[in-house]
């Protein structure tokens, strides 16, 4: 190699080495600057951009309550307030998916906001300029109030760090007081306070979500740090109630309470084959839109919280017990006068004066003779009758499980005294609730099989999952023959009893039984002249499909169970119309009232 060429190579090597030295020196100087000279400043800047964790609530909506046909009985609507922090309103730098940075100007964001809330971009910008003109340090400027959930979610999706939200949820009951005693209501804070709003809160309650992000010291969201936990709306609670039938029953019982001068009244309609409650109406009741307008004592449901001696309605249960045990037939007879003192000293009387009659079991129910039923009851042991009363549901709350539902009270047979021995045959010396009495009659009408009563049909979660309530298994209580024969006895009560003309439904065979319960005075005795009256109807008696029960608390115009007859006739008629039940095609088979 020539000397000239060697000198050229050495020169290039030296230049390259010098460049490397300069670069390394530059890095060294920069490193010293970062780590030593300006270390504190860089640490502060790093903190500024490392991000502060922040979040916004994504609100879920409380679920709806609907009737058996899907008619909305209760629903929620969310309203939102959107506000600015003017101190942080500015252009926002973003990084696209391709890594390129771009800027969204305040004017562009204002236009996007305006498109959602129904303003122009200039109108949105003016909100900020006006706020700062009034107070340069202002941290609050109202954008809009009364925004819908859709508008709220669209605004949140813009990811603007200077936009904040407040929510308020309102609960609406579009049918007013219809089923108000069942639905319950929520407080001003949205907390469920009564009825199924409370009992089924696990179905109806929403789960709020959250938008979480890292926020720099300038208030801006740091790109790529956003994570979203979606809100979950509450489920749809479907009840077995028919809102149209419920409306009618509420209007009717309110009218009857007024006519009879009663303290309160109630009507229940239950589907025999399923135990589904189609109406549970009462008066007084509550409008859940304004519960404060109702007396506190009337904001719940007396149907479930009131216990009473069922009285003569449970004479049918005594009859079914005897028939199931083979201890009597409809023609079995006893001799009974209107007032008797029994060997154990117990005194039993009937509601009307009559000589000694040779009553058949049928006749004892037709005339509702306490004395005759006392004698029939002795055909089986106290332990047997106690067992049957339990099997028919006495002393156990129904599967409805309504808040505050009572279970009633019955003492074991070995604790019965001489009077109780007889009183239990005609529905005294133990207490029940209205649903328990209805369930007992549903059992008789269903061929002796007790179906669990229920008002909740299902809960459908936001994801479509359907959950049905856990109910007791159907239970055979008496034989089909005993049950069917008891219904036949009740049909004879409807046609041969004193209320036959008042309860008749043209074209249909029906069965009925009344009850007039004395009211406890709280001191071991009864209130003079005050009664809790009830009546049940089985329709149609030849093919039982519905049980209808009416109660009146302390009627004053007519104090006996006859006070409930007009209401029962109306309730049965409306039920048959509502469900388009075909008229009966056969006639009743009359049974003898007295022994021949």
UniProtKB/TrEMBL annotation:
Keywords: Membrane, Transmembrane, Transmembrane helix. Residues 265-572 form the Penicillin-binding protein transpeptidase domain. Residues 59-192 form the Penicillin-binding protein dimerisation domain. The keyword Ligase does not apply. It is found in: Membrane. InterPro entries: Beta-lactam/transpept, Beta-lactam/transpept-like, PBP_dimer, PBP_dimer_sf, PCN-bd_Tpept. SUPFAM superfamilies: beta-lactamase/transpeptidase-like (SSF56601), Penicillin binding protein dimerisation domain (SSF56519). Its main location: membrane. Gene3D superfamilies: 3.30.450.330, DD-peptidase/beta-lactamase superfamily, Penicillin-binding protein 2a (Domain 2). The chain crosses the membrane at residues 12-32. Belongs to the transpeptidase family. This is Penicillin-binding protein 2.
